[in-house]
Task: structure prediction
Amino acid sequence: MASAGYGVFDTTLSKTNRVLKEIEDTYGWPRERRQQSYDALRAVLHAMRDRLTVFEASDLAAQLPMLIRGIYYEGWNPAKVPVRMHLEDFLNRVRQEFPYRVEGDTEELVRVVLDSLSDYITEGELEDIKSNMPKDLAAILP
Result:
């Protein structure tokens, strides 16, 4: 793996690559499809971020590795959240940002991405997130 030459950057790069590799391993994607795993991570994070209140979105972000936190906040407009989304709206949002076809459905993609982040998101935070979501959407979260 390439080194950034600075410990904090090397650590966040390693954590991000681990998350992307976990997504790839789940789907059996070769390393050459790294863009696809990145797009999956980004699409799910952005849909989640925009569905949450500013307070909950920042609580979640605080638990993410630094590089993934940057992906999460990319393009965020806190004045326009939370966006009211039920399950189908949320899944449509993910599909808009993730144009690839994958085995299974979009619900499964959301689970795979969130499971890949499970080392960083505490169970308590996930419960807080679920409590701020409509029941149909909360039901698909791990």
User: Anything to note?
Assistant: The mean pLDDT is 94.
